[in-house]
Specification:
The complex is a heterodimer of chains A (474) and B (121). Chain A is mainly alpha-helical. Chain A has one domain. In chain A, 74% of the residues lie in helices and 2% in strands. Chain A has a two-stranded antiparallel ribbon with strand order 1-2. The longest helix of chain A has 32 residues. Chain A is globular, with a radius of gyration of 21 Å. The mean pLDDT of chain A is 93. In chain B, helix 4 packs antiparallel against helix 5. Chain B is flat and about 55 Å long. Chain B contains five helices and no strands. Chain B has 121 residues and is mainly α. The chains are: A mainly alpha (474), B mainly alpha (121). At the A-B interface, helix 1 of A face helix 5 of B.
């Protein structure tokens, strides 16, 4: 008998999304804020439903709900909700406040939750496409702006190519293994005559397709342009939840069905990780636009997180899960500060616009300082613990090179993070920013509190990440 | 081998009848009707567009919208046929799966209708 309840959070969220879409279009008047509130309510209800799910496999083993999936889903929902709150004020001031915006974010979140629960390569692809299709539209949402349209088109073309690579990898895997089920793939992978070359090529293509979504080097080309051109809440969204979902899928695929052949994929992950860390730290130095800087920063962060995947151990996966948690909080907070950068009703995004912010707006400057220190990995902020756990896992498995490159590039990255702090505190003040709305302050303060006080709640979060990681090795 | 060919006999009969009817219609009108050809009459007719010409000509962007909307419902029909044929085997689960899919499409249809995507002007 089919177990219908397994995907109830996703089904609920999708149905709620369609209901809100109909509500928005039938109401016929300006109702973006109301629809955003409704979507946030749906997110909260889904959050509670995910917390109550029991571990099971359903739909002919296409779909699995376990502690790992739940951890990822809660993180995705939190990231989506935080950036949704950021969009409230920004969209209205930019004149792009249409009710489709939150609905598209909701559908993207449904796709990401499906990815987190994927137990079959087809489910993975379905979720990935639902996530990406919504983001294409979101990136081009400010359609009267040339840069936004360009960002949407660029992301669409390149992402479609990456989806093609991923599908090619899936078809090769299916052709050589004869199954797409994660549960059955290990037996097919460890056949009598070892791993076939075709299957290895398939795995490499799957990694390439997912690395594109993670914006890991050498699949990072789209990131700076799309981050700069897209409306800032969309950029914030892209750098939180849609980074988590492909990463947890990568963890599940590589540790689960391909865990036995980690010798084969480990070099790929190591190279991608080292290249991302290097590019993320060195290319960001010359940036003058804060959104571009954040793009390179996110490339670097994905490199650090991949350090935890390379060993293929339980402590490594735990490290990645903690890293993603802290990264989502820091990112949402940093982008809240970027959204607060408005002067005379216009959004400004140059780093020099932040000059002397400490004299004109000390709270905002302190919050941004907090996020920058945390991203640089300065203790005792949240970002430090993410880095600590992944480097620890790498060292435990003897991957010294990864840990050394990671620490050296962290030092380089410190330069551009701390440069922003220097600009805010020691440069001659630029004109003050417009007063920011309560919603933006809320996100910045909430993320700031999390980043600052993470050290106090280290036990519960580490415990949850450990329980989630154990599922993959069970 | 002969058995396989024999299975195709109805197709041959169908072809012969089609050729016969088609030929009779065209040939009959050529023989019996009065012929008064002029440029408009002999030009090919295809949905209002010239059938042969430069691909880089301008056309109304609204055709594009219509085409996209058409594709969605065309695909729906492509899904409906195999579903209708195998309905006896897939049971209630298959039946309601398709209904859920149609429900999602209906939501999209209502959205595009209310947004005015179906209005030409």
């Amino acid at each position: 008998m089919m177990n219908w309840a397994a995907a109830s959070p996703e089904i609920f969220l999708a149905v709620a999304g369609m209901a809100i879409l109909l509500f928005g279009v039938l109401l016929k008047k300006e109702n973006a804020a109301l629809c955003t509130m409704l979507v946030l309510g749906a997110f909260a209800a889904t959050f509670v439903m995910v917390m109550q799910t029991v571990p099971q496999t359903a739909y002919s083993s296409l779909f699995v709900t376990d502690a790992f999936a739940s951890y990822a889903k809660l993180l995705i929902l939190a990231g989506g909700a935080l950036t949704m709150v950021l969009s409230l004020d920004y969209n209205e001031r930019q004149g792009i406040g249409r009710f489709e915006f939150p609905v598209l974010m909701l559908f993207s979140t449904v796709g990401m939750m499906t990815m987190a629960s994927a137990a079959n390569l087809m489910t993975l692809y379905m979720g990935l496409e639902l996530m990406s299709l919504s983001i294409y539209v979101l990136a081009a949402f400010a359609r009267e702006e040339l840069r936004s349209a360009e960002a949407g088109l660029k992301y669409f073309v390149l992402s479609a190519l990456a989806s093609g690579l991923l599908l090619y990898g899936i078809s090769l895997t299916y052709g050589f293994a004869g199954t797409m089920d994660f549960a059955k793939l290990p037996d097919a992978v460890t056949g009598v005559d070892g791993v076939s070359t075709g299957l290895m090529v398939g795995i490499a293509f799957v990694i390439a397709g997912l690395a594109f979504k993670l914006s890991a080097v050498p699949f990072h080309m789209w990131t700076p342009d799309v981050y700069e051109g897209a409306p800032t809440p969309v950029t914030a969204f892209m750098s939180t939840a849609p980074k988590v979902a492909p990463f947890v899928v990568l963890l599940r695929v590589l540790i689960g069905p391909f865990g036995h052949v980690s010798v084969q994929w480990q070099p790929i992950i190591e190279v991608v990780s080292i290249a991302s860390m290097l590019l993320g730290s060195f290319a960001a130095i010359g940036q003058t636009n804060i959104k571009r800087l954040m793009a390179y920063s996110s490339i670097g962060h994905m490199g650090y997180a991949l350090v935890g995947l390379a060993p293929g151990t339980e402590s490594g996966v735990r490290g990645v899960l903690i890293y993603l948690l802290t990264y989502v909080a820091m990112s949402a907070g940093a982008f809240a500060c970027v959204i607060a950068m408005r002067r005379q009703g216009k959004s400004v995004e140059r780093i020099s616009d932040l000059a002397g912010l400490a004299k004109t707006d000390l709270p905002l400057a302190s919050l941004l300082t907090l996020f920058m220190f945390s991203m640089a990995g300065v203790p005792p902020f949240a970002g430090f613990f993410g880095k600590l756990y992944v480097f620890l896992a790498a060292v435990q498995s003897g991957l010294w090179l990864l840990a050394i490159v990671g620490i050296l590039t962290s030092v380089v990255a410190c330069y551009y993070y701390i440069r922003i702090i220097k600009v805010m505190f020691f440069d001659a003040p630029a004109p003050a920013f417009d007063t920011r709305s309560a919603s933006v302050s809320f996100v910045a303060i909430a993320s700031g509190m999390f980043t600052l006080l993470f050290v106090l709640a280290l036990g519960p979060f580490t415990g949850a990440a450990e329980a989630a990681a154990r599922v993959l090795f069970g | 081998m002969h058995l396989v060919l024999a299975n195709y006999f109805p197709v041959l009969v169908f072809l012969a009848i089609a050729l016969g009817i088609g030929g009779a219609m065209v040939g009959g009108s050529m023989l019996v009707a009065r012929q008064m050809p002029y440029a408009e009459k002999v030009s090919a007719y295809e949905c209002g567009f010239e059938a042969f010409g430069d691909a880089r000509r301008r056309f109304d962007v609204r055709f594009y919208l219509v085409a996209i909307l058409f594709i969605i419902f065309d695909l729906e029909v492509a899904f409906l046929f195999p579903w209708a044929i195998s309905l006896g085997r897939i049971g209630l689960f298959g039946f309601f799966s398709m209904l859920a899919f149609l429900g999602v499409l209906t939501v999209g249809f209502i959205y595009e209708w209310c947004k005015g995507a179906l209005e030409w002007e």
